[in-house]
Amino acid sequence: MQRILITGARAPISYEVVQQQVALGRTVFLTDSTKKVSIKNSKFIEAFIQTTSPRFSTEEYINDINNIVKEHNIDLIIPLNEESFYLSYMKDKLIAPVWVEDITKMLSVHNKYNFTKLIDAMGFKVPDTKYVMNQNDLTTFINDFPGDEYIVKQPYGRFGQSVRKLTRMSLENDNMIEFPFMIQTLIKGTEWCSYSFAKDGKTLSTSLYLSNTHDSYNCSTHFTSEKNSELQEIIEAVIKNLNWSYQIAFDVIKCDTTGEYYFIECNPRATNGALFMQPEVWELKQCAPKYEARQLIFVSLYNFIMRPKKHNLERLKYGKDIFWHPSEKSIFFEQIISGAQWWFEAKTQKTTVNTITTYDIEWNEDIVNL
Questions:
Q1: Which helix (H) or strand (E) holds 208?
Q2: CA 306, CA 217: separation in Å to the nearest integer?
Q3: Would strands 320-321 and 181-185 be described as parallel, antiparallel, or unpaired?
Q4: Secondary structure (3-state) at 29
Q5: Which is it for strands 320-321 and 293-295: parallel, antiparallel or unpaired?
Q6: Enclosing H/E stretch for 310
Q7: How many angstroms separate the CA atoms of 312 and 76, rounded?
C-alpha cells in the first residue's frame, strides 16, 4: 500500500484529492505550514503534520518534509499549492519523489510575461503584450496597439490581485502610475479555466470549466466541468510542446470577435480543476474527467448576500459542496471555523483574505526575461 504525503492542505481541493488517493487504497498524510486547515481531522487521513513556512524558512521547511517522509515511510509527495515551487526548487534535497516539474520550467510559465512570450513563440494566441519600464515605453505600446481599454498587471500575483482594467485616457494622464508593469490589449470574450495532469508531454486528463471570478472577488467559488473538444485539443498541444509532467493549469479567453482562444496565464500547480479528476489519473493512467458541478457553498452564499443577483442565487441550487461527504459531515462545518480564522487574521493584518491565505507559501520571483 502506497503512503502519500499531500502538501498544501489548506487548499479547498485537498479534501477531494485525499479521497481520490484513498479510492486507490493509498494511505494519506497531510501537511501545511498553518493549522487553519479544514480537513486536518478528517477520518480519510492518517495524520496532519504542521511544518514551518516554505517562503520564510525554505531549508527548514525541506528538513520538515524529509523528517515526515522518514517518520512515516512516505513513498510519494503530491503538492497542491504554491509550496510546489519550493519543493521544485529544492527537489534534489528531498528524499522521496515529488510530482512537480523542474524549477526552470515552472518559472518559465509562472511568470506571466515570460509565459506570454513562450506561448507566442510556440504559435499559440496571446494578447499583444509589453513589459513597460517608463512612460515612453507605455506611449509606444498604446500607439502600436490602439484601443479604448487595456489590461495592466504584474508578472506575479494570484487571485487576480494585481490585474487592473484601465482606459487609454487614464494611462496617458495618470502621473501616479508606478513602473514597471506588464500591459496587454484587452480581449473580450468567454473566460475558461483548465487543469491538466500530464506525463512527459502526454496529457492524461484535462478538466475545463468557466471562470466566475468577477462574481466572487477574484476567486471562483462555483465550478462546473464542461466539454470543449476544441479547447482541449489546443491545451494538449501546448502541454506536448512544453513536454510537461504533472499538474498544470491555464486561463484562456475565447474572443467574442474572432472565436480564437487566447492564453492569459498559467499555474504550473494544482488548481480547482483537480476536483474533477478520476482516481486513476494518480496512477498515471489516461482517463476522462468527471462532469459535474461543485461549489464552496458558504462563500457562494456570501457572494449572493453581497451581490444579490439572480445568477448568484441560481448557483446555490446545484453543485455539491467541496467539503461535503455524507459519512463525515463535521468537515462541512470545519470550513466555517478555518474560514473565520483566515478572515480574522486578514483583518488583524489589514489585508485581504485572498492575500493572507498564501502569504507564507507564495513564490514571488521577480526576474523578468526581457
A1: strand 202-210
A2: 11
A3: unpaired
A4: strand
A5: parallel
A6: helix 310-315
A7: 40
DSSP states of 127-191: --EEEE-SHHHHHHHHHHS--SEEEEE-SS-STTTT-EEEEHHHHHH-TTPPSPEEEEEPPPEEE
Predicted local confidence at residue 310, as pLDDT: 63
* pLDDT 10s digits, 220-267: 677 899 999 999 999 999 999 999 999 999 999 999 999 999 999 999
How far, CA to CA in Å, does 325 sit from each of 13, 207, 329? 13, 22, 6
* Distance in angstroms (rounded) separating the CA atoms of residues 265 and 263: 6
3-state SS of 243-291 is CCCEEEEEEEEEECCCCCEEEEEEECCCCHHHHHCCHHHHHCCCCCCCC
Per the listing, cell 513563440 goes with: 121
Buried b (16+ CB within 10 A) or exposed e, 320-351: ebbbebeebeebbebbeebbeebeebbeeeee
Return the residue matching grid coordinates 476544441: 230
**All cell numbers assigned to 60:** 527548514
Grid coordinates given for 171: 494611462
- Distance CA(182)–CA(369), nearest Å, equals 12
pLDDT for 295 beyond 70: yes
Please, is 241 exposed, middle or buried when counting C-beta atoms within 10 Å of its C-beta (0-12, 13-18, 19+)? middle
Kindly state the cell numbers that stand for 156: 506575479
* 76 half-sphere exposure, CB direction, 13 A CA radius: 14
Nine-digit cell string for 3: 503512503
